Amino acid sequence: MSGKHTKGKNDNKVVVSPEDTATPHSKRKKKKKLTKGQIIKRVMIGVIVCLFLVAGGIFTYIAYLLNSMDVVDIPKDDTQINISDQYQDKKYDGIRNIAVFGVDRRGGNANTRSDVIIILTLDNQHKKIKATSLLRDSYVSVEGYGKTKLTHAYAYGGPELAIKTINSNFNMNIRDFVTVDFDSMAKIVDAVGGVDIEVTQGELESLNKCIDEYADAYDIEERTYVTSAGMQHLNGMQACGYARVRYDHNNGDDRRRTDRQRRVMEEVFNKALTMDPAGYLSLAQTLLPLVETSFSAGDLIDLVGEATDILTNDGAEFEQARFPMDVDASFPRIDGMEVVDFDHEVTNEKLYNFIFEDIDPSATTTGNTSTTSKNNN
Fold this sequence. Notes:
Elements: H1 3-14, H2 24-31, H3 36-66, E1 70-71, E2 95-103, E3 114-123, E4 128-134, E5 139-142, E6 146-149, H4 152-170, E7 176-181, H5 182-191, E8 195-199, H6 204-217, E9 230-234, H7 236-243, H8 254-273, H9 277-287, E10 292-293, H10 297-311, E11 317-323, E12 329-330, E13 333-334, E14 337-338, E15 341-342, H11 344-356
Parallel strand pairs: 1-10, 2-7, 4-11
Antiparallel strand pairs: 2-3, 3-4, 5-6, 7-10, 8-9, 12-15, 13-14
Helix pairs in contact: 5-7, 5-9, 6-7
């Protein structure tokens, strides 16, 4: 191919003819290939693409966090986990009950008792979140083990047997659970920036002993003690110690301890409500790898949606209760154990009314068994 021919091809592509250069205006029109609208359109497309890339990265990270949970399968059939037929009724839609277990796995012991047993209720009907403590020493029937303390069910058969025991003895409809050990609880409290708790003078000695026990168990050298009574801002270690205090000036028992546990839980809840989106992501990063649960990633997303529906309501409330109530219980020693024996019929009625009917348990009359379909004495 000759040089002349090559030059001719180049001329056809890029060389401007004398006629085209006759006026500057003609030249500018030739080079201006995009209109203002086209430029804006391209910029907007670029912005949208960038947003999708950022969102994709966030969702990928969230998916990674969700998949970091330790998921344990629980039977889906109601009869396998002792849920009464009454809960097939659609009137219970919008009220979800979740078992929250707090365990002490010092030494790596997987088969441990549940020191904390809370029914967490997402009540979309009444726009409330409720935390209901069950006394760990409640004297109940545990399938395969006879009558013993409620706390033992988790040690005997893990979360599945613990759920079955709660459902059969308290006539509940729990299908899912979350388990957190005490080391995890301390990290969760730190993740929300600590909690504000009123500490009494009588609690100080036991509180600091519990801090020592916690630090010894997890090989923590630096201990942050609580040195005075009154309103205190507690870090994770201190809040964990506070939640384990049983005695106040040598007075008290598991009932007082469950009150403290719910108080810490409420403060964590309140602090979480004030966090910004970046804080929620940080909290999820801390919390999710620490929990054992029956929720899949998809289930957890649905759960967050339910909680959001409640929390975005102007009148959203957080309520607490503890069962069995003192008036319905006695505290005998059976088979060498100090237990909480209680009236199942009355307790189940009050528990049902609090969770499903939003009735103050102290206002519930006794003797009406219409709300509880089975008695598991």
